Amino acid sequence: MTDTVSPTSTGTSYDVARVRAHFPQLREGEGLGAAHFDGPGGMQTPDVVAQAVYDTLTAPLANDDTVTSAERNASLALTEGRAAIADLLQVAADGVVFGRSMTQLTMDLARTLAQGWGPHDEVVVSRLDHDANVRPWTIAAERAGATVRWADFDPETGELDVEQVAAVLSDRTRLVAVTAASNLIGTRPDVPAIAELVHAAGGQLYVDGVHHTAHVAVDMAALGADYFACSPYKFLGPHCGVLAARPEVLEPLRPDKLAPASDGVPERFELGTPAYELLAGVTAAVDFLADLVPGKGPRRERLLVSLAAVEEHEDRLRRRVEDFLVSTPGVVLHSRAARRTPTLLATFADHDPQDVRRHLAARNVNAPAGSFYAYEAARRLGLGTTGGLRIGLAPYTDDHDVDRLLEALAESVGGA
Ligand SMILES: Cc1ncc(COP(=O)(O)O)c(C=O)c1O
To answer: What is the mean pLDDT of residues 235-241?
Structure first.
């Protein structure tokens, strides 16, 4: 066993060198070889995903249908893409909607759901969320004359407690929009408990899983989400978006659509021609995730084993970074919730996070600074215009990356 292989508590092992071999951008070379801590903005893409996109585009390809091989290739990309997401989220393939981005899908769904809202209805959003799970709902509510209620989080602990959501629920609540994990500070609220309360109040729950899906295995039913959105480019896939729901939840909804376009579910929600090549990339990304720990058996089972191993791997590396940050005078670590992803946000008493980011970049260590569209959360944390330095771990992060980060940080902000 080499030191790149870590045993996990489930009896498997995680071989990060094997994983990294699939990322040409991580190799030494001109413009390459950065230590990437920028995954929360979009992970690096493995060769197999790029290959799947290339293979789809260079094979015969037409609009999906059954007569020519070009049509069948398109059809296959679509059905395989839906099946892959179905395994990833534990949802029916017929409930998987593809779109350009999570933002676009959420804007569209908010407009559709708001057709049924009026002045007596209430919509709940949280201050912890990325703006993509806030503004679509506040805009739609405003147009419908519905009331927006805000669930706050505690900036001291970073927690969005169930009670903070309960406080703004009522028998008028139609929809609650909440994140499964904050892309700013990593907090993972207790979504199943929130779901129970929302459903007891008679509302529906829309869960932003964009940051969460990269790090933790998802089971939509166990989360209690009526809708769950994620973005494949955050979990090693190509740039597109996914909205998932049980088909019976989607069935009564009437989104705007073209007259000749399918009225079936989920096609009704997909405007225009699907990006077949990207969907092939989505399938390759889910297969790659399932194979992070090589094994046999159904893809869903392999995903669970692999993602559990990744979680342990990332948590171990996170603790290394965290130990450094908490022991360095003048560093404020904003990621403090009891349950969180391996994403750390820091500010500095004597340094502008943008300067720290530039210092790291000059040493080929990529960790961006800002507020990352978590607009309300950044304001609540008092981050100001320069935001914080965000350090995100990914399945390809290794100890050497962390050594490079800590060394560059020590030069920049002090510490061991
Ligand atoms: C938590 C979270 N939600 C939503 C989004 C928006 O996703 P998309 O770029 O697919 O619209 C992001 C993107 O950074 C995110 O991190």
So the answer is: 98
